[in-house]
Design goal:
7-stranded mixed sheet, Rossmann fold, alpha+beta
Length: 495
């Protein structure tokens, strides 16, 4: 974010405008970012910094004293530490070593007032904010290019989207990011509450296998599947506003109450979620879903060859993680030979909508609603047409929370019972076989994904889930249909 770039200007006619722009910038901040605030005494630097800090830590009442005399104030209530420096009283740039400037930069984001007192200590990539008095208000100059500048521009575009959609002046709070470049915010304007999805255009998600070619790349598939689920009488978020070109979607806030308590699943809620899956699978579901603009989104087919490709993640990432060296050609040949007849058997399995990640992070509990609508569904933009047993395995062997073996059996048994009640044509034997195959495939794929996220994306916390997924895999490999895979697995001493 070179300081040499020509600045854009933003008028700040009053305190509300200042707070809104500060909140937009707070939403854009990332670890390692530097904001350099310059301007004369009384130009508005500290006021802006105070508004930004309060927005970042999501606490309008937090005390934000000026660091003029202490040189530094730190704030730990946000997504990462935020340090507020004031260089006005620096006697030399060397003092920054004593107060931990480099450490603050490494650990989180940094705001600097009076940056001209130690310009050599600031990184070249930064965002420069210059303040001046303009009548009864202020004028803000913004200079710099790079990641933060791009994020700030996008954040300002989100503000314009909200304003134009009838949510002018809405308060914004970072909610979460996910494994792709999607990010989410909670917004509220008066008594209204919503969730904003920010999905930058041309985001194809994470690389890795044939499924990536079928991943949704914009908000349109989410809109199509969302409308289809709500038309089926299920609880997906109501959509309030959309800008499909920009990748912005404002939707109903379904709350934060999930389906787990502490470290374990709440059995009743998992049973309702399983009943939701049975309801989806009880009747034919279309592959073509119409959008409000009249266009059609066609759900791709989740074919055995795609499942086979996903298994490569186990060989490419988990195998060397455990064994200490890449899988040899003979290892791969044996693995593929064990899996090929199993995937071929899936051709006779029943198919329907597959939401792909029906597990605790994507399920909300809505106690004020009735029946199946008590389960709120999220994160279904990559839905496909594929074996119904896949989503059942996703829920009954939740990768994020341990489902005990007896609860897994009860959940699958309840699903089979509901399907039999709805149709005498339901073949429980074929389903159970497909369930075993897909549970094992999913477990092996996830083991590879978690190692890849740790080693390639710098997210080691995913490794914490590996023991749980291994236990699911060991359970499943006892099924007779998986004997070939079980022999290969035991031969390589993964257990």
């Amino acid at each position: 974010m070179a300081a040499s770039e020509a600045p854009s200007t933003i008028d700040l006619p009053d305190e509300a405008a200042t707070e809104a722009v500060a909140a937009d910038l707070a939403a854009a901040l990332g670890r390692g970012d530097v904001l350099a605030l310059s301007g004369g005494l009384g130009a508005g630097k500290t006021t802006f910094a105070r508004a930004l800090i309060r927005a970042f830590v999501a606490d309008a009442g937090v005390e934000v004293p000026s660091p003029t005399f202490t040189l530094l104030q730190t704030y730990a209530g946000g997504r990462f530490p935020l340090a507020h420096f004031d260089f006005y009283r620096l006697s030399s740039a060397d003092e920054l070593d004593e107060i931990g400037f480099e450490d603050a930069l490494a650990e989180g984001a940094v705001l600097v007032e009076w940056p001209e007192r130690a310009p050599s200590r600031l990184p070249a990539e930064r965002l420069e904010l210059s303040f001046e008095i303009a009548g009864s208000g202020r004028r803000l100059g913004v200079a710099g290019e790079g990641a933060l500048a791009a994020r700030f521009r996008r954040s300002r575009a989100i503000r314009a989207f909200l304003d134009s959609g009838g949510w002018k002046g809405a308060d914004r709070r970072f909610l979460q990011g996910d494994a792709s470049t999607r990010a989410y915010e909670r917004v509220h304007a008066g008594a209204r509450r919503g969730v904003l999805m920010d999905w930058p255009p041309a985001n194809a998600g994470l690389p890795g296998g044939k499924r990536s070619a079928y991943r949704a790349t914009d908000v349109r598939p989410f809109i199509a599947v969302d409308n289809a689920l709500r038309a089926a009488g299920l609880s997906a978020p109501e959509l309030y506003a959309a800008d499909t070109g920009a990748g912005f979607l404002l939707m109903e806030d379904l709350g934060a109450e999930g389906v787990v308590a502490g470290a374990g699943p709440i059995a009743e809620r998992y049973h309702v979620a399983m009943a939701v899956l049975a309801e989806i699978h009880n009747r034919p579901r279309p592959a073509e879903l119409r959008l409000p603009d009249g266009t059609v989104h066609r759900l791709p087919a989740y074919r055995p060859e795609m499942l086979a490709d996903e298994l490569e993640l186990f060989l490419d990432w988990y195998f060397p993680y455990v064994i200490g060296e890449p899988a040899a050609p003979a290892d791969r040949t044996g693995f593929h030979a064990a899996w090929a007849p199993l995937l071929a058997r899936l051709d006779r399995a029943e198919t329907s909508w597959v939401l792909l990640d029906v597990h605790s992070p994507n399920l909300l509990w809505l106690p004020e609603r009735e029946g199946l609508r008590r389960i709120g569904l999220l994160d279904f933009q990559d839905a496909m047409i594929g074996p119904t047993a896949y989503d059942v395995a996703s829920l009954a062997q939740d990768a994020r929370v341990t489902v005990p073996a007896d609860l897994e059996r009860a959940l699958v048994g309840r699903y089979i019972e509901l399907r039999r009640q709805a149709s005498g044509d339901f073949d429980a034997q074929i389903f159970s076989e497909a369930y075993a195959i897909l549970a094992a495939q999913r477990a092996m794929r996830i083991l590879g994904v978690f190692v890849r996220l740790s080693e390639k994306a710098g997210k080691p916390h995913y490794l914490n889930h590996i023991p749980r997924v291994l236990e699911y895999l060991r359970r499943t490999l006892t099924e007779p249909v998986l004997s070939g895979v079980s022999v290969w697995y035991e031969k390589h001493r993964f257990s």
